[in-house]
Inverse folding.
């Protein structure tokens, strides 16, 4: 499965067509799905272009993507940068009226369990974000609802294309070594990198038969180093890379 991450925290000055408004997200999602994406991850923005979990922005973004890419699972962020207080983030989750299919929760962030349980309470699936170089995997093992995860979102924050695959393997080994985090317990793993490590980690994930992710949140360049025009171009390039790995 290839998930497209449409925008992340990037602005429109990134040199590519980064979608920000709800209608831009919907249009970008439709193009990425036509290119081969099978799930969509977005960071809703407010009227100033800032990332937010406020209902008015989340509802609009999810509705726009769902209308443009019907039947495709949609996920949003719950990153602490949108609202530092985890209890406030949980309250914002409960205020949503147009629900995404799932939301990512970064397990190294304080109060991750509070946010995740609010998501489960309202019927939204949880992607557990486990970053390399953090204690997220250990913390996730202790969560009593680990069997209810949609997937583990394993994120390699090593930007060096030479060392990032090794960092990815170490992160996967860390997950595999922890009791309670076997595949049957926590669902599939989506492994992805970012910036300079994005394509090297994608090839590593494809070689291991794992779910993959690409999009303007993770990188603005193609495998050959050229600038990407938009998310759809990145999706097409990712599928070519996966096919080449076999």
């Amino acid at each position: 499965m290839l998930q497209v991450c449409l925008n992340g925290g990037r602005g429109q000055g990134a040199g590519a067509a980064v979608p920000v408004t709800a209608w831009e997200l919907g249009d970008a999602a439709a193009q990425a799905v036509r290119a081969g994406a099978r799930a969509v991850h977005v960071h809703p923005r407010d009227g100033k272009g800032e990332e937010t979990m406020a209902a008015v922005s989340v509802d609009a973004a999810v509705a726009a993507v769902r209308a443009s890419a019907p039947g495709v699972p949609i996920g949003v962020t719950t990153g602490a940068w949108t609202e530092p207080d985890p209890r406030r983030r949980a309250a914002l989750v409960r205020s949503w009226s147009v629900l995404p299919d799932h939301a990512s929760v970064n397990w190294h962030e304080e109060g991750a369990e509070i946010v995740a349980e609010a998501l489960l309470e309202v019927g939204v699936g949880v992607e557990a974000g486990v970053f390399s170089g953090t204690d997220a995997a250990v913390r996730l093992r202790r969560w009593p609802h680990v069997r209810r995860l949609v997937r583990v979102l394993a994120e390699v924050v090593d930007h060096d294309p030479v060392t990032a695959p090794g960092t990815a393997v170490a992160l996967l080994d860390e997950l595999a070594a922890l009791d309670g985090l076997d595949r049957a317990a926590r669902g599939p793993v989506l492994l992805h990198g970012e910036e300079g490590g994005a394509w090297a980690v994608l090839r590593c994930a494809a070689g291991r038969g794992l779910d993959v992710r690409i999009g303007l949140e993770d990188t603005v360049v193609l495998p050959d180093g050229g600038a990407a025009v938009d998310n759809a171009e990145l999706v097409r390039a990712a599928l070519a890379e996966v096919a080449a790995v076999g």
